[in-house]
UniProtKB/TrEMBL annotation:
Keyword Lipoprotein attached: no
Name of the encoding gene: LOC111312870
GO cellular component terms attached to this protein's record: cytosol
Residue stretches making up the Peptidase S9A N-terminal domain: 17-455
Enzyme category, top tier: hydrolase
Keywords annotated in UniProt: Hydrolase, Protease, Serine protease
Organism phylogeny: Eukaryota, Viridiplantae, Streptophyta, Embryophyta, Tracheophyta
Protein name as annotated: Prolyl endopeptidase
């Protein structure tokens, strides 16, 4: 069985840890034997695993310390990060709420401002806006801002973050979820808004939950998992046990969690997940039921006004609530836009892959009408009911946002709102509000919050707040969108950003990012790290909108899912080939990057075309496609991947699973110089979504000289500073040499490196596990600029 130690061979002056191989672990998948010699790496609490990880971390740090550009880049990144940032404000009762960061604060701080808009002031504002339609007066944010909640005071190192947030209808209470070290597990607390004091309420075992208040402010709905058995510690953030039996509860303020009402559970379908949302009129509770991460859901409703004794009547009988089934099949997605009593308007993809708006009366649930039909080309992304009977709708047109004002009743167009090429990341208003706040960002726009007054005849997009980054000049850069022909002839959109007036002679480093899954659209957004890469290394950074995402609706998504997952890899490889053939870069200077499902993308692509890339960054990737569904929330991903428990789907997965397809390129192409590119695998100790075992096992198999970097990231990963520092070191070598780096955790290390006496694999594979971090959300600012 062997023991942990260092290999006698070395890469340069480095030696690489060897992971024990347990050859006795073999699984039978529908008659096919598949070895899993690194199964022991799945136990994060095992001392053997901790020792292995620590040796990899030590090795990686020893490499990074030798990078003489680290301090220079750290200073530059810190300087660019040090700028004020704001989120889009939202209104509850007589107050506005928003987050603000002065620049380098670890976590954003929640502020509130009292709205001074009483009846007389409303009249004055209406008169002013009639004569001065360019928003002569700001609606409601004239008061002095006050800190309501500062997460930076909740931990010394800034690793406690807000994960959920909801203000009661009368703005008396704040319900908020706290996450430690980036874990998906949340503890819900309550605070009185007026005097900013905390209540005694503390709710545990919560994951994937919203907080939805009843309009009487007596309590809220939330979702949680059952209390674990004695001795189990399921909310530590480092466990891997599967999450099942989600439940919907109602919590009365001032009571113990054990007294909460169980509103809904479904033991016969333990993998279903539930979310309860109170409608804007406070009358209905809507129950959303999901079976995975795909754009489909069931939808039930409960008329709370018809409960004889209200929710209090369920304290003794403890639920379930009397829900009525409106949608009881997982065949489409239904999202509520607005309701007038029992008449509901929904955004749906039912018989409309690019989405449409429909209306139904709960009293006549079989009669549905279209309010806004599906567009032939553009995807209807969202609809927000505002200003009485109007709505602001957003479309995605060739991965660029379009904003319109439409009539809520008829769907007819009222106004087009002008907006630059970029992303609308937030529309904040409720049905009674005529003043709307709209958040916008782009590759070269750090952030703008627009204010749009719908009271006037011709609404305008006026700048309310603009985020400015010191030292950044957008005129130095250029954005280009191209459409790349994939293997099957489909045109794949790709954004390319770089400095102006650069010759396309193939001499420049290039970063190519992709995701391609779960109906997620990659739209333009600002990244300090990518700007540093472009400005200081002369690099291009590119976003490939490959299939599997939602950029062109559900058909685009399905074209890269399940049996068609290989399409995602083909699209990404085609994007890389385009960048090379068009003179943007060359293979030895091309770095690919992706996180989570995008980490799977990177892992699969370096297996299939290792010679095409010079460097690969796989953040928190799903690498073991045969066992992912057995850990935490992995079962929710079978909607996109399939499941190895089914024979047909096993045949899809085994063909591209990164862990099971590490090969020696020099054996596939005899006589060639092909090897894996320099590869960094990144994960985090508290990633309880894509658990670290994926990256650890992948690393173990490669068995090449690898320096594994495990770091947390979110779905829209930005190139972090330490990657920039290491890339600077690597790319400077790549520019002058024709060398590349390869490997990938233990699997890669074994196949490519330690199993051979003189391996042709000379490119390193490195890994780093970031401590007190998770899948990406809630990372403190200093971890984004860590040295």
């Amino acid at each position: 069985m062997g023991s942990l130690g260092l290999s006698e061979g070395s890469f340069g002056q480095f030696q690489y840890p060897i992971a024990r191989r347990d050859e006795s672990v073999v699984d039978d998948y529908h008659g096919i034997k598949v070895a899993d010699p690194y199964r022991w790496l799945e136990d994060a609490d095992a001392e053997e695993v901790k020792k292995f990880v620590q040796k990899q971390v030590t090795l990686t740090e020893s490499v990074l310390e030798k990078c003489d550009t680290r301090s220079k880049l750290h200073k530059q990144i810190t300087k660019l990060f040090d700028h004020p940032r704001y989120t889009v404000p939202f209104k509850r009762g007589n107050k506005y709420f928003y987050f603000h960061n002065t620049g380098l604060q670890a976590q954003n701080v929640l502020y509130m401002q009292v709205c001074q808009e009483q009846h007389l002031i409303k009249i004055v504002i209406s008169v002013c806006n009639f004569f001065y339609p360019s928003n002569w007066i700001q609606d409601g944010l004239d008061g002095e801002p006050e800190v309501l909640l500062d997460p930076n005071t909740l931990s010394e190192d800034g690793t406690v973050s807000l994960k959920a947030l909801s203000v009661s209808e009368d703005a008396k209470y704040l319900g908020y979820g706290l996450s430690s070290s980036g874990s998906d597990w949340v503890t819900i607390k309550v605070r009185r808004v007026e005097d900013k004091t905390g209540e005694l309420d503390s709710l545990s075992w919560i994951k994937f939950s919203e907080i939805s208040w009843t309009h009487d402010s007596k309590g809220f709905f939330y979702s949680r998992y059952p209390v674990p058995k004695d001795g189990e510690n399921l909310d530590s953030g480092i466990e891997t046990s599967v999450n099942v039996n989600h439940e919907l509860y109602y919590h009365f303020l001032g009571t113990n969690q054990s007294e909460d009402i169980l509103c809904w559970s479904d033991p016969e379908n333990p993998k279903h997940m539930f979310s309860g949302r109170v409608t804007d009129d406070g009358k209905y509770l809507l129950l959303y039921i999901d079976e995975g991460c795909g754009p489909v859901n069931k939808l039930y409703h409960c008329d709370m006004s018809a409960l004889p004794k209200g929710l209090e009547g369920f304290r003794e009988r403890n639920g379930p609530l009397p829900f009525v089934k409106l949608i009881d099949q997982f065949d489409a997605q239904y999202l509520t836009v607005a309701n007038d009593d029992s008449s509901f308007t929904f955004l749906t993809n039912k018989d409309a892959p690019k989405y449409k708006l429909v209306r139904v009366d709960l009293k006549e649930p079989s009669k549905w009408i279209d309010v806004i039909p599906e567009d032939e080309k553009d995807v209807l992304e969202s609809a927000c009911a505002v200003n009485g009977n109007q709505m602001i709708v957003s479309y995605l047109s060739d991965v660029k946002y379009v904003l319109q004002v439409r009539d809520l009743k008829t769907g007819s167009m009222l106004h087009k709102l002008p907006i630059d090429i970029g992303t609308v990341y937030g529309i904040s208003a409720r049905r009674e509000d005529s003043m709307v706040f709209i958040g916008f960002t782009s590759f070269l726009t750090p952030g703008i919050i627009y204010q749009c007054n719908l009271r006037v005849e011709f609404p305008e997009m006026n700048i309310f707040r603009e985020i400015n980054v010191p030292g950044f000049d957008r005129s130095d850069f250029k954005i280009n969108q191209v459409f790349v022909q994939s293997k099957d002839g489909t045109k794949i959109p790709m954004f390319i950003v770089g400095k102006k007036d650069i010759n396309l002679d193939g001499s420049h480093p290039c970063l190519l990012y992709g995701y391609g899954g779960f109906n997620v659209s990659l739209t333009p957004s600002f990244s300090v790290s990518r700007i540093v890469l472009a400005r200081h290394l002369g690099a291009f950074f590119c976003i490939a909108n490959i299939r599997g995402g939602g950029e062109y609706g559900e058909e685009w998504h399905k074209a890269g899912a399940l049996s068609k997952k290989q399409t995602c890899f083909n699209d990404f490889i085609s994007a890389a080939e385009y960048l090379i053939s068009s003179g943007y870069t060359q293979p030895k200077k091309l770095c690919i990057e992706g996180g989570s499902n995008g980490g799977l993308l990177v892992g699969a692509c370096i297996n299939q075309r290792p010679e095409l890339f010079g460097c690969a960054l796989a953040h928190v990737g799903v690498m073991d496609m045969l066992r992912f569904h057995k850990f935490t929330i992995g079962h929710a991903w079978t909607c996109d991947f399939g499941c190895s428990d089914k024979e047909e789907e096993f045949q899809w997965l085994i063909k591209y699973s990164p862990l099971h397809n590490v090969r020696r390129p020099w054996e596939t192409h005899p006589g060639g110089q092909s090897q894996y590119p320099s590869t960094m695998l990144l994960t985090a100790d508290h990633d309880d979504r894509v658990v670290p075992l994926h990256s650890l096992k992948m690393l173990a198999v490669s068995s090449l000289p690898i320096i594994v970097i495990l770091v947390s990231t979110c779905l829209n990963i930005h190139l972090h500073s330490y990657l920039l520092k290491f890339l600077t070191h690597i790319l400077s070598s790549l520019i002058s040499q024709d060398s590349r780096f390869a490997c990938s955790f233990q699997t890669m290390q074994y196949v490519l490196c330690t199993s051979l006496q003189n391996s042709p694999q000379t490119n390193p594979i490195i890994g780093r596990i970031e401590c007190k971090a998770g899948h990406g959300c809630g990372r403190p600012t200093y971890k984004l600029v860590i040295n």
